[in-house]
Design a protein that fits this description.
It is a single chain. By secondary structure, the chain is α/β, with parallel strands linked by helices. Helix content is about 30%, strand content about 20%. The protein contains 8 helices and 8 strands, in the order E-H-E-H-E-H-E-H-E-E-H-E-H-E-H-H. Strands 1-2-3-4-5-6-7-8 form an 8-stranded parallel barrel, surrounded by 6 helices. The chain starts with 5 loop residues before the first strand and ends in a 5-residue tail after the last helix.
Length: about 240
């Protein structure tokens, strides 16, 4: 049976000078969860926020909070983000395999792999679950579906539809067949992140995504509640 569509508002595009008000705006609009993009300047060419922001968000809302760890060595930070209040911890598949030749250097992006070391990945997935949190694994656009060995261990998979590192990027259509293929063998949550709007969201939902991460589309809207209502209603069109 198709899953209900959930809206995950990414605070990357929120106004951090009034973060509490922005979170209240998310709640009033009917979003289902909040997405915190954690970037370290090594896995991606940008630096954003850390545990203290997750802790701040957690103190301001009862909505589930997802910490998307776009960092090298995510295992080092699982415990601290769980303790800060993240309900979902999302780790990048590219941290568990040999990088493609063109992205092994310090300033070579985006990071991509063709396969993962399932044993290493499973260690961190289990660590997340031991903390009582949901474990998602994330695939960058250039990384193929290579999670078969760990799918049964995961609560969800996030398909990146942009190369991670910056907001306001254009949706990459290559995400659609990846979502379709994944939904054919995975019953858990499938989240799509990057370039979601009124044009791309219907395609992602039709392909099998049930969590839509939205940043600029939501926070730039004059009527955010209508945005959320529109996105959730896409589930009725499948």
């Amino acid at each position: 049976m198709p899953k209900d569509i959930k809206i995950n508002a990414s605070i990357l595009c929120a106004d951090f000078t009034k973060l509490g008000d922005e979170i209240k705006r998310c709640e009033d609009a009917g979003v289902d969860m909040l997405h915190v993009d954690v970037m370290d300047g090594h896995f991606v060419p940008n630096i954003t926020v850390g545990q203290i922001i997750v802790q701040t968000v957690r103190s301001a809302t009862r909505l589930p909070v997802e910490a998307h760890l776009m960092v090298e060595h995510p295992g080092m930070y699982i415990d601290s983000f769980a303790d800060a209040g993240a309900d979902i911890i999302s780790i990048q598949a590219e941290c568990y395999g040999r990088r493609k030749a063109e992205c092994r250097g310090l300033e070579q992006f985006p990071k991509e792999v063709n396969s993962i070391d399932a044993a290493r990945a499973r260690e961190d997935i289990r660590r997340i679950k031991k903390k009582g949190k949901k474990a998602f694994m994330v695939l960058n656009p250039g990384t193929p579906l290579c999670l078969d060995a760990v799918l049964d261990d995961l609560d969800g998979v996030m398909i990146m539809s942009v190369n991670p590192g910056f907001a306001r990027q254009k949706f990459m259509p290559l995400a659609i067949p990846k979502i379709e293929n994944l939904r054919g063998k995975f019953d858990g949550d499938i989240e799509v992140d990057g370039g979601i709007n009124e044009v791309t969201a219907p395609e992602a939902v039709k392909a099998g995504a049930n969590i839509l991460a939205t940043a600029s589309y939501f926070f730039g809207a004059s009527r955010p509640r209508e945005v959320v209502q529109y996105l959730k209603a896409l589930g009725d069109r499948r």
